């Protein structure tokens, strides 16, 4: 992909944002990692942007994250990936609906692609992410049974489903979390069945999804409680 070169207007905005963000408490930098838009050294905890043209995820500094947060910025090419994790314990999906996906594995993530204007479903495999065809009727039925899916932010948030080893877990997660799961499986898979190591890693991954969702729910609950005082 050609290197991204910010315009003079973008460069000016970045300078102003860096002056603002530099006044805040500095985060620990991650050795060797740099913002893939402007080249500045990155903190160990940093945000990601999605390139809508090729679905690539880019590491971003705080200034670029703020700059590209608004829709339409960067000619609409980049979208800031949110950090929302939501567990859906009451998610309604029948075994028949699941089987209609005709997946060879028991993990899948689904999101709305605004460029192609359609729903996309991918499952992780030893070869990477593989697309699975999903009829619009099946999706509309899922949304009808689970209105929370209407809140999915196109392109950058996904419904992540885990039905490995008889589990029934459903989450709304940032798209970069799905990419991380794909990379984990691709790197750790061994032989025909994957090996016990990869299944342990998958279990840890979903435990992390649950932990993040619980922590955000706790913070949200505390904020709501405080607002009523």
Describe the protein in words.
It is a single chain. Helix content is 36%, strand content 24%. It is built from six helices and eleven strands. The chain has helices at 8-22, 62-67, 95-100, 136-145, 175-188, 196-227, and strands at residues 29-34, 41-43, 47-51, 56-60, 78-80, 86-87, 107-113, 118-125, 128-132, 157-162, 169-174. The strands form three sheets. The chain has a six-stranded antiparallel sheet, covered by helices on one side. Strands 4-3-5 form a three-stranded antiparallel sheet. It has a two-stranded antiparallel ribbon with strand order 1-2.
How do the strands and helices of this protein lay out in sequence?
Blueprint: H1 8-22, E1 29-34, E2 41-43, E3 47-51, E4 56-60, H2 62-67, E5 78-80, E6 86-87, H3 95-100, E7 107-113, E8 118-125, E9 128-132, H4 136-145, E10 157-162, E11 169-174, H5 175-188, H6 196-227
Antiparallel strand pairs: 1-2, 3-4, 3-5, 6-11, 7-8, 7-10, 8-9, 10-11
Averaged pLDDT: 82
Task: Please report the distance between the alpha carbons of the first and last residues.
Answer: 52 Å
Provide the spatial order of strands within the biggest beta sheet.
Answer: 6-11-10-7-8-9
Content of β-strand: 15-25%
State the helical fraction: 25-40%
Report the C-alpha radius of gyration, rounded: 19 Å
Envelope shape = globular
The succession of helices and strands, N to C, reads HEEEEHEEHEEEHEEHH
Low-confidence stretches: 1-5, 7-26
Please outline the major beta sheet: 6 strands, antiparallel
The chain-level structural class is alpha+beta
- How many strands in all? 11
Instruction: Count every helix, treating DSSP H or I runs of 4 or more residues as helices.
Output: 6
């Amino acid at each position: 992909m050609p290197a991204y070169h910010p315009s003079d207007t973008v460069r000016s905005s970045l300078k102003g944002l860096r002056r603002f963000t530099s006044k805040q408490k500095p985060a620990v930098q991650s050795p060797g990692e740099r913002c893939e838009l402007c080249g500045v050294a990155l903190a160990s905890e940093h945000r990601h942007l999605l390139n809508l043209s090729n679905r690539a995820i880019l590491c971003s500094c705080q200034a670029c994250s703020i700059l590209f947060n608004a829709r339409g910025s960067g000619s609409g090419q980049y979208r800031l990936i949110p950090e929302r994790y939501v567990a859906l314990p009451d998610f309604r999906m029948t075994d028949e609906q699941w089987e209609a996906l005709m997946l060879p594995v028991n993990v899948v993530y689904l999101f709305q692609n605004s460029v192609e204007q359609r729903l996309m479903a991918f499952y992780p495999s030893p070869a990477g992410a593989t697309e699975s065809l999903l009829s619009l009727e099946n999706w509309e039925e899922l949304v009808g049974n689970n209105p929370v899916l209407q809140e999915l932010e196109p392109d950058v948030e996904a419904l992540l489903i885990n039905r490995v080893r008889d589990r029934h877990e459903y989450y709304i997660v940032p798209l970069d979390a799905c990419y991380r799961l794909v990379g984990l499986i691709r790197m750790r898979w061994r032989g025909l069945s994957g090996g016990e190591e990869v299944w342990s890693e998958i279990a840890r991954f979903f435990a992390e999804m649950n932990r993040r969702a619980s922590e955000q729910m706790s913070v949200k609950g505390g904020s709501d409680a405080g607002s009523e005082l």
